[in-house]
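Cast an eye over this sequence plus C-alpha cells and walk me through the fold:

***
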Amino acid sequence: MDFIFTVCDSAGEACPVWPGHPASAHWGIEDPAAIQGPDIEKEKAFVQAFKYLKDRISAFLALPMASLDEIALTHHLKEIGRLEGAPPATVLPFDRRQA
C-alpha cells in the first residue's frame, strides 16, 4: 500500500499498524450513519459525506506526485484532510512516523 486515508472520527478503536511505510492522513468526516431523523435527512447526510470524500480524492489525484518529496506529500495530505467537511474538533490518530 502506498497511501492510507482514515475517515471515521467515531470508530472507538485505534488505527492498525500498516505494513511498509505508506503515506497516511486522517480525512475525518462526520458519520452519516449516525444521523437520526427522517429518511430525507439521512440521505442528505450520505450525499454530503460522498461530496466531501469525492472533493478530497479529486484534490489528492491532482497532486504532482512526481515532484513531491515525503515531507511535502505529507503536508498536502494533511491539508486535504482540512478541506470543507472536516469535523471541527477532529482528533488525529497517532502517526508512528512522527514519534
Residues 3-98 form one domain. Residues 89-99 have pLDDT under 50 and may be disordered. The longest strand covers residues 23-29.
